[in-house]
Amino acid sequence: MTTKKEDAHSQHCPAEGVLKLLSGKWKPQIFRLAVDGPVRFSGLLREIEGSNKQSIAVALKELEAEGLLEKIVIRLKPLHIEYVLAERGKAMLSVFNLMEQLK
Questions:
Q1: Count of Cβ atoms closer than 10 Å to residue 58 Cβ
Q2: How big is the CA angle at 86 (ends 84 and 87), to the nearest 5 degrees?
Q3: Which parts of the chain fold into alpha helices (H)?
Q4: Distance between CA 91 and CA 103 in Å, rounded?
Q5: What is the rounded distance in angstroms from the CA atom of residue 59 to the CA atom of residue 76?
Q6: 27 within 8 A of 99, measured Cβ to Cβ
Q7: pLDDT digit string (tens) for 37-95?
Q8: Residue 72: strand pairing partners
């Protein structure tokens, strides 16, 4: 449960908001893979060791809701869905790259 004190602090700390966007199971890995180009659900399952369908689906839904990824339906046979970085996600690339350099 979040207290009012924590809410007030997070409103004054922009860095905390950015970190929360990419926090959660598999979100940083999905974001990193999407930097290189469109990603597909089945590809993410293969690329991210230890992942499962439910956790990938939840992470994709949350990243899409936050405006970091866009869902594109490819209406060719067979029908498939790709996820690409949205404008907000592209705007975060410089911050994400700096964070990777600190490791």
A1: 14
A2: 145
A3: 4-12, 14-21, 27-35, 41-47, 53-65, 87-91, 93-101
A4: 21
A5: 25
A6: no
A7: 999 999 999 999 999 999 999 999 999 999 999 999 999 888 899 999 999 999 988 88
A8: 82
- Of residues 82, 85, 84, the one with CA closest to residue 93: 85
- Of 70, 1, 14, 67, nearest in space to 38 by CA: 70
Name the amino acid, one letter, at 27. Answer: K
Distances (CA, A) of 23 to 63, 66, 79: 10, 12, 30
pLDDT band at 4; cut points 50, 70, 90: low
- Rounded to a whole number of angstroms, the distance between the first and last alpha carbons of the chain is 31
Are the C-beta atoms of residues 69 and 34 closer than 8 Å to each other?
Answer: yes
Spatial CA neighbour of 82 closest among 41, 29, 35, 36? 41
Residue 69, beta-bridge partner list:
85
The helix/strand/coil state of 71 is: strand
